[in-house]
Amino acid sequence: MYDPENRLTDAYDPEVGTLPNEDGGRDEENVVKTGTTTVGLSTENGVIIATDRRASLGGRFVSNKQVQKVEQIHPTAAMTLVGSVGGAQSFIRSLRAEADLYEVRRDEPLSIHALATLAGNFARGGPYFAINPIVGGVDEEGSHVYSVDPAGGVLEDDYTVTGSGTMVATGTIEGQYDPEMSLSEARDLAIRAVNAAAERDTGSGNGVVLAEITDEGVEIDAFDDYESAE
């Protein structure tokens, strides 16, 4: 529970991701960080997003083993949930509503760059605590993967990883990623990256959620184990 007087975060509140220091007045040493692993890979034919399924209490207890950390927010885009559960869910609802409103008003969907920029603006100026999502999508300009940091920074790359499993997952992807790889190959690589992180990161685990994004839409599937996802 957030205490406005002490400006600390209760270590036993449910979370699905890392807790960066967003408030300069917060004592970072007393903020317990938990983990997750989210991966986004861009290919010529679309985008693959993969995450683990674990939510924990203060990084000490697994509070939920079936969290879906990827949500569709746009006809051809999805975003990961990273951070406190409430903040991440509120962030996704707000972003989805704005994207829908734009499409109704303009009779066309937001570009993925505009969507990621909007997400960064929300992160920078909104009340969303401890978020570090990945936005992935496809538009007329091709496939895109963006990371959005808690301060609102938006960076596009061929692939990106967020969460406490970042180092292990990134190490798995490095040297194996190819922008010309097929969606099937990207899917396999994303699964391997999340699985590798789960082997070493206590905040990640309990299967994988996969989102396959093409110009035809978003398909999201959840698997209890990595073998069945392959």
UniProtKB/TrEMBL annotation:
Q: Tell me a Gene Ontology molecular-function term this record carries.
A: threonine-type endopeptidase activity
Q: What is its main location?
A: cytoplasm
> Mind telling me which Pfam families this protein's record contains?
Proteasome
Propeptide residues per the UniProt entry: 1-35
PROSITE patterns registered for this protein in UniProt: PROTEASOME_BETA_2 (PS51476)
Q: Which reaction does it catalyse?
A: Cleavage of peptide bonds with very broad specificity
GO-annotated biological processes: proteasomal protein catabolic process
GO cellular-component terms in the record?
Answer: cytoplasm; proteasome core complex, beta-subunit complex
Question: Which residues fall in a compositionally biased region of kind Basic and acidic residues?
Answer: 1-10
Q: Which residues form the active site?
A: T36
What InterPro entries does the record point to? Answer: Ntn_hydrolases_N (IPR029055), Pept_T1A_Psome_bsu_arc (IPR019983), Pept_T1A_subB (IPR000243), Proteasome_sua/b (IPR001353), Proteasome_suB-type (IPR023333)
Instruction: State its Enzyme Commission number(s).
Output: 3.4.25.1
Q: Where in the cell is it found?
A: Cytoplasm
> Domain of life here?
Archaea
Activity regulation reads:
The formation of the proteasomal ATPase PAN-20S proteasome complex, via the docking of the C-termini of PAN into the intersubunit pockets in the alpha-rings, triggers opening of the gate for substrate entry. Interconversion between the open-gate and close-gate conformations leads to a dynamic regulation of the 20S proteasome proteolysis activity.
Q: Which Gene3D superfamilies match?
A: Glutamine Phosphoribosylpyrophosphate, subunit 1, domain 1
Disordered as annotated region, ranges: 1-27
Instruction: List UniProt keywords, sorted A-Z.
Output: Autocatalytic cleavage, Cytoplasm, Hydrolase, Protease, Proteasome, Threonine protease, Zymogen
Subunit text:
The 20S proteasome core is composed of 14 alpha and 14 beta subunits that assemble into four stacked heptameric rings, resulting in a barrel-shaped structure. The two inner rings, each composed of seven catalytic beta subunits, are sandwiched by two outer rings, each composed of seven alpha subunits. The catalytic chamber with the active sites is on the inside of the barrel. Has a gated structure, the ends of the cylinder being occluded by the N-termini of the alpha-subunits. Is capped at one or both ends by the proteasome regulatory ATPase, PAN.
- Provide the function of this protein: Component of the proteasome core, a large protease complex with broad specificity involved in protein degradation.
Stated family: Belongs to the peptidase T1B family.
Query: What name is this protein filed under?
Result: Proteasome subunit beta
Q: Which organism is it from?
A: Haloarcula japonica (strain ATCC 49778 / DSM 6131 / JCM 7785 / NBRC 101032 / NCIMB 13157 / TR-1)
